[in-house]
């Protein structure tokens, strides 16, 4: 019998995490399952609540980090614990705001692997509040030029935001308290999150959305981490895609597996908090972009040398 482990990275979102866990516990089929919940440095009482809720459940292991390490390092922490404990047949790495509504999700996963072995698999990720599908992200790596453009644009946005923040702290403090244009926010999120690849058909060698990823034993027997440890928020998926290309891995997308992503469509922002959030995103986009650019350049140089030999 196959065994499937689920790795959930939790940060404050108590209700979402409970819904995610409930949906996993409801999955049935020809497999065993365990859940590993990683609290990524939540500074509220959500960890205490979760520990109390699931104290008697032998299927759930809860681990905690003192500080928020971000997506990559937080998941790597959980992954290391899991492979030291026992390497399962499959590891489903999922955001806490993902819900599994296919009761036969596990059996479908096993069937896909039996018919077409993979190292990494991505399901159809449906952000139902926006009515959009998020995976796969692309079927090719971005070019060095594309990444440089993204970094350059992020630096321009950062500079503008810093200037805007200074004005907000003085003149606009009272007059621009909130942003209530929900139509704009919905348009922005749709443009940012929606896949441009045909999500209705399977894809081989695709860059997959990181909200839910499935790693097979084939992957876990070869690698001691999931994601590049130095990124925070951005380009984790592209770096994983590049890693798969480098190591001749099967990184595939299959729409027969579907999960539901509960992204919040918030319509009201405190203006100062909104600016701080966007600045935070710009800083990390620039940093992660530089990491991806460096890794891609190394890969391209290595391929050049191979071609010359």
What does this structure look like?
The chain is an alpha/beta fold and 309 residues long. The protein has 9 helices and 11 strands. Strands 1, 2, 3, 4, 5, 6, 7, 9 and 10 form a 9-stranded mixed β-sheet that branches. The protein has a two-stranded antiparallel ribbon with strand order 8-11. Helix 5 packs antiparallel against helix 9 and helix 8 runs parallel beside helix 9. The longest helix has 38 residues. It is globular, with a radius of gyration of 20 Å. The termini are far apart. The relative contact order is 0.17.
Topology pattern, helix = H, strand = E: EHEHEHEEHEEHEHEHHEEH
User: Percentage of helical residues?
Assistant: 40-55%
DSSP, total strands: 11
Work out the radius of gyration. 20 Å
Low-confidence stretches: 171-191, 265-270
Task: Classify the secondary structure makeup into a structural class.
Answer: alpha/beta
Strand content: 15-25%
Number of helices: 9
Calculate the mean pLDDT score and round it.
88
Distance between the terminal alpha carbons, to the nearest Å? Answer: 47 Å
Largest beta-sheet characterization:
9 strands, mixed
- Shape, per Cα inertia axes: globular
